[in-house]
């Protein structure tokens, strides 16, 4: 799954996406917000790396979680 395709699908579900950084210098993550609250992050640089460590994410985010997993499983070379 391409990064832009992933972002569009997340936005189609009603969430906001923001380019994020783990080092403060370059874009290395996509941050996902629900009502302006960060609920998930997924790496754009490292396959299989994602975080949903937030007590605001739950059962109602099932479709989002599936997208996160699909994107995280996509090899980096196939995201561009």
Low-confidence stretches: none
Encode the helix/strand succession as letters. Answer: HEEEEH
Q: Can you give the mean pLDDT?
A: 95
Q: Based on helices, strands and strand pairing, what is the structural class?
A: alpha+beta
Strand order of the largest sheet: 1-2-3-4
Helix content estimate = 25-40%
Q: Given the structure, what is the number of helices?
A: 2
Radius of gyration: 12 Å
As a percent range, the share of strand residues is 25-35%
Biggest pleated sheet? 4 strands, antiparallel
Cα end-to-end separation: 9 Å
CA-based shape: globular
Counting DSSP E segments of at least 2 residues, the number of strands comes to 4
Quick summary:
This protein is of the alpha+beta class and 80 residues long.
Keywords:
80 residues
Explain this structure to me?
The termini are close together. It is globular, with a radius of gyration of 12 Å. By secondary structure, it is of the alpha+beta class. It has a four-stranded antiparallel β-sheet with strand order 1-2-3-4. It contains two helices and four strands; from the N terminus they run αββββα. The model has no long low-confidence stretch (mean pLDDT 95). A hairpin with a 6-residue loop joins β3 (37-43) and β4 (50-51).
């Amino acid at each position: 799954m391409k990064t832009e395709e992933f972002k569009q699908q997340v936005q189609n579900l009603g969430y906001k996406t923001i380019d994020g950084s783990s080092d403060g210098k370059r874009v290395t993550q996509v941050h996902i917000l629900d009502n302006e609250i960060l609920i998930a992050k997924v790496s754009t640089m490292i396959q299989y790396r994602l975080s949903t460590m937030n007590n605001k994410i739950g059962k109602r985010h099932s479709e989002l979680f599936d997208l996160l997993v699909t994107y995280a499983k996509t090899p980096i070379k196939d995201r561009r």
